[in-house]
Structure formats: C-alpha cells, structure tokens
Amino acid sequence: MNKILVTGGLGFIGSHTVVELQNEGYQVVIIDNLSNSSEKVLDGITAITGKTPLFEKLDLREKADVEKFFKKHNDIKGVIHFAASKAVGESVQEPLLYYENNISTLVYILKELKKLPAASFIFSSSCTVYGQADELPITENAPVKMAESPYGNTKQIGEEIIADTCKVVPSLKAIALRYFNPIGAHESTEIGELPIGVPQNLVPFITQTAMGLRDELSVFGDDYPTPDGTCIRDYIHVVDLAKAHVVALGRLLKGENKSSYETFNLGTGKGSSVLEVVNSFERVSGKKLKYKIVGRREGDIISAYADTTKANDDLGWKTQLSLDNAMLSAWNWEQKVRS
Ligand code: UD1
What whole-number percentage of the chain has pLDDT above 70? Predict the structure, then answer.
C-alpha cells in the first residue's frame, strides 16, 4: 500500500482528497497546523471511509520538525501539498506571512523529497496565475500574468520552484494543478468548507445569507461586458476536484507522465455568472436569496473558465457533477453545520 502525505489534509480541498485517496486504497498521513481547520474533520473522514488517517499536528515552517517527520515516515511515496494561506486581501497586508507559509514550507518539503529514492509531488496551484487571460477558455499554454497579490505570487513562484527542482532532481516528478473555483461539499455532509469569520468567497456567502447569518449578498458589479453584466467563473465541485488529485498522483506513481513537471487546469470548462450561481442556489434550495447589486470589487477579473482538453485527454479525468449538485451539497452542508 502506497503511503501518501497530505499537507493541509484537514482543510477544505485537503479533507475531500483524503477521502478519495482512502477510497482508492492509499494509506494517508496528514500534516496540518490547524490554523484554518479542526481536528474534528478527522471524524468526518472516518465516518465516510471507515478509516482514520494518521495525523500529525505540525507546522511546516519548523524546518527541524519537517526533517524529523520525513525520517520517521521514510516510506512516503508521494505528497499532495495543500497547506498554504489563501486569503488574497490578507496577503496584501501580511506579505511575509504568505511568503513564509507558502514558499518556505514548499522548499523544506522539496528538500526532504530530494533525499528519497523516488517521490511524486502534487501542488495546489490556481487559475489566478493567468490573471485576466486574453483568450477564453483558458488553456495551460496561456501566459502567466503579473501576480495581483502576494498570494497569487506565491502560486507562481511555487510553480517555478518545483519546475526548477524537477530539472535537476531525477527522482522527483511533479504536477501543478491549477484550480478554478472549488465549491460544494461531500454529499454525506460529513465534511465541507468552514470559512472563519465573514466569507470572502461567493458560495459560502450565499449559503450563510440563506441561513440568516448575513443580511444579504452584495453582488460586486453588474456592468461587466458579460451577458448579464456580472463576472464569470468556472465553479468546480470539490469532490470532482479531489478525484483529480488521485488521478494525477496515480499518473506519477505509474510513470505515465510525459515530463517530470506538468501543469493541468482543473475546471468544468463552463463559465457561470454570479447571477447564474444565485439562480442555481434558489432552484436547488427552494429559497429566495436576498441580494443587491453594489460596485465592482477591486482586483476582480471579468471572466475565467478552463479549457479542460488537456486534463480530459492526458489525465483521463472529467468532472461528473453539475453546478446544481455543488450548490445543493453546499446548502446541505451549511444547514448541517448550523443545526
Ligand atoms: C478568489 C480570489 C482568488 C482565489 C479564489 C479562491 C480574489 C480577487 N481572488 O477568486 O485569488 O484563488 O478566490 O477560491 O479575491 N462575489 C460577489 N459577492 C461576494 C463574493 C463574491 O459578487 O460577496 C463575486 C466576485 O465578484 C466574483 C465571484 O463572485 O465575480 C467569485 O468570487 P470569489 O468566490 O471570491 O472567487 P474569485 O474572485 O474567482
């Protein structure tokens, strides 16, 4: 049985990926510092899969602890690296925190992987690397644009660090997965997204508004050059996204990769406007959502959705769940959390 390290494995995407890994028979060890998650997530994972992953509370910024961890688990075959900070606004205020959390930790892990006879590495990247792409849908060949925030910059630099390392460490193979907008929750409602404080992302804001935690949703701008004037994104169900990680890892472990460092877009290929997301929510929940149109949010791009050809053809992966599926699962999860 292959032993896989999942950093940030108690977080939103991490926990869903641990479930899919365990369902496929992998042995999972989680590292998490609980800065944006809870140990209770382990119970949810156990309830779904019948297995409790190994868990070590560890802060990856502590280099000596990372070394110790890899000495203890010297049979690790692969790492899926989620642990990172992800709030765009906070990253502007606290750039050094972001460079330490997202870059130093990556370097420490790669240094340990270099010592192993063979290692497969999956990196959480983001469609944010494309900025406002000149052509839609966005292919992996679209140019990487100047980062708009330190957070975005950590994803770009992270990709470069991995690519440079793969060039000179023949035992290391890596894939960077560029996520579009992950939403939803596991259909069991055992795990889901747990935003701390006021959510910045659209879908948790919608479900919290419907639950009565927020007065109304502010729709940021309806004067964009899009069919209904609101911004367009590619919303992908977190379970589809989690499954892509397992497929990407399998590709590396089986040696099916075409080069030692590859990138893939993970999206549905379909763009949805903010108002289409609101409509989807109203359809699946049977509830009317209170919202008002306000001014544009600084830094928002107009439209982004993935060209999924490379992921479909090379990875052999495709999304199976719809926007309605995702919105219903997010709503069921919100109701469970507040009950
Ligand atoms: C944001 C981040 C991006 C990050 C991603 C993670 C910014 C500028 N970008 O992307 O770097 O990778 O989250 O999921 O923060 N919206 C509203 N009202 C709200 C919240 C959002 O109208 O209260 C709109 C936004 O204007 C946008 C869409 O909903 O058009 C999606 O917003 P969001 O969920 O924040 O995702 P992104 O902006 O795509």
Answer: 100
